[in-house]
Amino acid sequence: MTMGKNEIIASRVFDVPRELLFQAWTTPELLARWWGPHGFTNTFHECDVRPGGTWRFTMHGPDGVDYPNHCVFVEIVPHERVALDHLSGHEFRVTATFDDLEGRTKVTFRQNFKITEEFEQAKAYCVEGNEQNLDRLGKVLAEMAY
User: pTM score > 0.85 for this model?
Assistant: First the structure.
């Protein structure tokens, strides 16, 4: 995990081809299974995975609190990159890139906040939350690979 100006960057190498990783990021049924930190579940209301497409969902926290989310997909490059803007609450752009490592794939998860004050507030829980997100993604990828 590293940080840039208003940005949290996490990366992980998975023992799957990048096509599988891209599929996990762009298939609503799969995305709903791993998006968010440990203990969270999701209800997707809309997930139109294309540039300009809307993604509305509710994250259900382990404490019973619901977190409504509104995102818009900005860029979808098959097997290479997914970018989306998170527009509810803290505004940030998530960019995920998928680098082929001869059958394995490195995903780099960049979360760039629009406002410095919001970045300063969110980084305390987003750093760990993003790592947990990648943990959950790994479990879904393992199931997909077998």
Answer: yes
